[in-house]
Description:
Layout: H1 8-18, E1 44-45, E2 66-69, E3 74-80, E4 87-91, E5 97-102, E6 104-107, E7 112-118, E8 130-137, E9 142-145, E10 149-152, E11 158-164, E12 183-195, E13 198-204, E14 209-227, H2 229-239, E15 243-246, E16 249-253, E17 269-285
Parallel strand pairs: 2-10
Antiparallel strand pairs: 1-9, 3-7, 4-5, 4-8, 6-7, 8-9, 8-10, 11-12, 11-15, 12-14, 13-14, 14-17, 15-16, 16-17
Amino acid sequence: MTIHSMTHLNKISILAVLFLSCREDNVSHLWLMIFSDAQPIQFWSLECNTYNQQQSEGVHHKCFCQPWQCDDEIKIQFTNTVEDDFELSVRDEAASEILTLPFDVIELSDRFVYSLSLTPSEISPEICNQLIQFVVKNAVEDLYQSDCQDIRDDQPNTILANYSNHRNVFGLVYSVSSPEPTFNLRIPAIFFHQRFPKEEEVMQLSNSLISQNSVVRKQRLLDIDYVPYYFHEKLNLILQHQFVTIFNREWVTQEAYEIPEGDRRWPAKKGKIYLTEKDFVMRNVL
């Protein structure tokens, strides 16, 4: 498709977007395709460098391949202002196409929502135990690309988080179905160490103290391995969802997400946050 074959309105829209520099808000050079940073897979426009393609002075180059297990369900979603036939191209390390999968599309009042779900072990040809890349394309060209995805039968020292929301949030559209869709993210992390913060209200009498009420909560440390900043941002957005499930329990955030400084030359950083178990609240009221 050439610019001359498009309507005058489309010409204006494309020229307006082309005027923008390569930005981090994931706006495509064609139409207004928007990929949420809160979805499991990070996508970059073909006009932009991905994290692995980016070279920065004074910082070591270190590639990051996002981990998945073969039985994980991977969901991808984006929105567009016009309707088109989009496909997900799955490619190997040599950039050769393994297979393509069509996106489903639902029309809302002001946009089209495209979504796709795949489980590596259930598609043919199977894409387990290899490094792959996802590319979103239409009939004319490649539009968006991910960095490498590391799909294995087993990913040690990782956990799977499930998340969803009642309302549309952070660019993710949850109003496309009922019940709302649930997304999954496999996190390079250890989720083991616990603590039990307590809040207590004490009344002082003339010669003694009396505990009026107390609350005990259970928290567990999500200790994230070395990952890029975009992955830390993704985790921050995910943990703000209404429903976050890890190890079949729901968790909420009451504490700050911390990224220790470390060596300024190292591009990947560790992160940590204490998550509070949603249904564990022990109260004692006088």
